[in-house]
Amino acid sequence: MVTGFDILTHDKRLRRHWLNRAGAFIADAFLVFIPVTFIFWYLDFTDVMMIGLITSLTFYVSSSVTEALLGATVFKLVFGMRVRPLKSERVGARAFVRNLNRLLWFVLPPIDFAVGMATGGDPRQRLLDRAAGTTVTIESQRDWHEAHLKQVEIPADEYSDGAPDGEEGRIGGTDAYEVQTAGQATTTGGDRCDECGGHLMMLADEKLQCRKCGMIQ
User: Fold this and answer.
1) Whether residues 79 and 157 fall in one domain
2) Do 133 and 89 contact (CB within 8 A), yes or no?
3) Domain boundary residue among 110, 139, 168?
């Protein structure tokens, strides 16, 4: 099984993706922690446990609300990222599931990341992303990806599978892009991985992933 860690070693776009997400997470944390801590200091409130609880809850609620309404936190927007649901048009309540790690921001995020990367599937998803049915995309890659999709061609000799005349580019008389279920990957028949030459499949957000090495195209 190809894991996200395997892909991370040779996919520069994936490394850049996770560095951007880490940067946005840290910046969003400071955006909450600094003013909340200042307010406690101004009020001369010194209960460390209560400060930690309120700060974590504020971080969780503020991140979840902005993602539910805008599809991104403040610094995800700054970094050009967007949270995308896999089975609907809006993130909505899914944001409150995918951000549960922010309640224990000092320990859960690396575990959430590591478990998601150590298992098969979209390497841009943390464990809680999979539980919520969401992923995070880089908006600047949209035009490049749409142009890439237009270049996909289906070799009739390899994928016709005995289709009648005039049905070239179809598998057994069905479309070569075979949708499995809503929110799951779509198998593509025509393009090949830039890295290993393996077949590509279309992910729920219309990015392409190699079925052999897992690289996101």
Assistant:
1) no
2) no
3) 139
pLDDT band at 82 (very low <50, low <70, confident <90, very high): very high
Confidence of residue 180 (pLDDT cuts 50, 70, 90): very low
Considering only 55-59, 158-162, 170-174, which range has the smallest mean pLDDT? 170-174
Position 199 confidence tier, pLDDT thresholds 50, 70, 90: confident
3-state DSSP assignment of residue 54: helix
Interior CA angle at 91 toward 85 and 94, to 5°? Answer: 90
**Do 105 and 111 touch, CB atoms closer than 8 A?**
no
Report CA Rg, the chain: 21
Each residue of 86-113: b (16+ CB within 10 Å) or e? beeeebeebbbebbebbeebeebbeebb
Distance CA 160, CA 180 (A): 19
- Are 115 and 12 contained in the same domain? yes
- Residue 136 forms beta bridges with which residues? 83
| Count of domains forming the chain | 2
Overall average pLDDT of the 16-40 stretch: 96
Residue ending a domain, among 88, 118, 139, is 139
The helix (H) or strand (E) run that includes residue 99 is: none
Instruction: Provide the CA 69 distance to its chain's centre, in angstroms.
Output: 18
Backbone angles phi, psi at 214, to 5 degrees: 85, 0
What string of DSSP letters covers 185-201? -EEEEEEE-TTT-PEEE
What residues make up the domain containing 78? Answer: 4-139
pLDDT of residue 206: 67
Global pTM reads 0.73
